[in-house]
Amino acid sequence: MKRYNRRKSSGTTDDDSIVLPEDLLIEILKRLPVKSLCRFRCVSTSWRSLISDPRFIDSHLTHSATRPNLIVSFPDPKAGRQGGLRIFSADQSDPRDGQHQMARPLFSLRGWTSYVPQSLHGLISLKVGSHVKICNPSTRKYVAFKSPRIKRRSGRWSYFQQTETFGFDPVERTHKVLSTWVVIGGVREFIMEAWVLTLGTKEWRRVEGCPPHHKKDNEFCFNGVVYYTAWYLSHGFRPDNCLVAFDVRAESFRVITIPVGAIEVGHAPLLIEFEGRVAMVGCGDALSWDEIVMWILEDSDREIWKKRVFVLPPCWKDMVADRRVFPVGTVGSGELLFAPRTLRNPVCVFYYNLKTNGCRRSEIYGLPEPPEYCHLTFSDHVESLQPPRGLSGGSQARQLFLAA
Question: Which chain regions cross the lipid bilayer (predicted)?
Answer without folding.
Answer: none
